[in-house]
């Protein structure tokens, strides 16, 4: 079998010639984009199945080259990796890298190619052990991945700033998220997965994150954001804090926009058992309001709440909370639309742009749930 720098053997090309695809019954979590991506074998990090194969075809933009990071290659050892193997091929130059397995691992965690097209072939016969493989990639435009860190500058002795490029698809890789976005994340967390949770990047795109490592705090409460729930954490010596622009600046998301006017499709006029009136009007929708909140008229279809910010603003996210009253009321999911003039409305579709994005809301009437707008919304009115 060929080793790194050897010539490409027959049968290593993917069945499909389309870029950014995977084929075979041994494919695990996969998200491939032209600029970055993540791929894994089936069941990873559990034992991969017998007699399976998967072929991924990676395609970067013309003029760029691919860099592959081996997060984990744990395939049962065998002579020349005959029982299970990972083989990478550059069809443009006819060069092959591998085969790799547990007794023939890549010489470095990062493979720098000179090609914009690479096929990744994984196959297995009968075996007993092995987690399989986890590989991420980025283009030469984004050399850092979540396995390498570029230190920018140390701020005081207790703070170190660095920047990391996170590939697309890191949200669903194995590992826990710890921490609260307002407090930072434990440095034992999966870094890029935590960045998705905090709303710094979108999982379907990936991107650069800038963060600082600071002196820790004693307890992290669990938090829910962007469809993920973090876990309550105990004592930590350090924490990671994500920043929008620079390590020396505070988080941009700390700024709360002022709402000039609240409007709604309807509101509930409640008469309680004592005959007392209670108006669940739109103005009561502000997050800091004590007592009951806004609620639409019971039975109302397609209810909406509208916020007038007074002028065109850059909106990076939203926080929702339930009624926190005697009634256990909360919104479980919602869509967002925006307008610059209050007449023409545009549904929010996120970074994919294909269909209206449905945000995951609250699971009870007590906790706050934050969701990020990636990319941000520029508008005066949010509905």
From TrEMBL:
Alphabetized SUPFAM superfamilies for the sequence: Galactose-binding domain-like (SSF49785), LCCL domain (SSF69848), Spermadhesin, CUB domain (SSF49854)
Gene Ontology cellular-component terms listed: plasma membrane
Residue intervals of the LCCL domain: 164-240
Keyword Acyltransferase: no
Domain F5/8 type C: 246-383
MF terms (GO), sorted A to Z: signaling receptor activity
The protein, known as: DCBD1 protein
Organism encoding this protein: Hypocryptadius cinnamomeus
Taxonomic lineage from the root: Eukaryota, Metazoa, Chordata, Craniata, Vertebrata
């Amino acid at each position: 079998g060929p080793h790194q720098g050897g010539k490409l053997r027959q049968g290593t090309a993917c069945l499909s010639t389309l870029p950014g695809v995977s084929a075979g019954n041994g494919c695990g979590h996969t998200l491939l984009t032209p600029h970055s991506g993540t791929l894994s074998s089936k069941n990873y990090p559990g034992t991969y199945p017998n007699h399976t194969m998967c072929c991924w075809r990676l395609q970067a933009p013309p003029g760029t080259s691919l860099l592959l990071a081996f997060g984990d290659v744990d395939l049962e050892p065998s002579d020349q990796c005959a029982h299970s193997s990972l083989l990478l091929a550059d069809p443009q130059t006819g060069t092959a890298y591998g085969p790799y397995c547990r007794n023939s691992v890549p010489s470095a965690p990062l493979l720098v190619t000179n090609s914009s097209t690479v096929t990744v072939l994984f196959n297995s016969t009968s075996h007993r052990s092995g987690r399989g493989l986890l590989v991420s990639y980025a283009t030469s435009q984004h050399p850092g991945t979540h396995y390498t860190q570029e230190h920018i500058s140390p701020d005081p002795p207790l703070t170190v700033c660095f920047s990391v490029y996170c590939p697309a698809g890191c949200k669903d890789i194995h590992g826990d998220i710890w921490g609260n976005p307002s407090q930072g994340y434990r440095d034992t967390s999966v870094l890029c997965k935590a960045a998705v949770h905090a709303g710094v990047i979108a999982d379907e795109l990936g991107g650069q994150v800038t963060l600082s490592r600071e002196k820790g705090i004693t307890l992290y409460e669990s938090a829910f954001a962007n469809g993920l729930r973090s876990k309550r954490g105990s004592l930590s010596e350090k924490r990671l804090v994500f920043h929008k622009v620079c390590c020396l600046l505070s988080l941009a998301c700390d700024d709360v926009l002022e709402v000039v006017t609240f409007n709604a499709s309807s509101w509930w006029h409640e008469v309680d058992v004592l005959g007392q009136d209670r108006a669940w009007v739109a103005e009561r929708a502000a997050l800091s309001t004590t007592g009951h909140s806004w609620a639409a008229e019971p039975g109302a279809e397609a209810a909406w709440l509208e916020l007038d910010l007074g002028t065109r603003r850059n909106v990076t996210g939203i926080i929702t909370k339930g009624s926190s009253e005697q009634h256990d009321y909360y919104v479980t999911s919602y869509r967002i639309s925006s307008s610059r003039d209050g007449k023409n409305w545009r549904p929010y579709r996120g970074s994919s742009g294909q269909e209206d994005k449905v945000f995951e809301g609250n699971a009870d009437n007590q906790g706050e749930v934050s969701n990020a707008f990636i990319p941000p919304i520029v508008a005066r009115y949010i509905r």
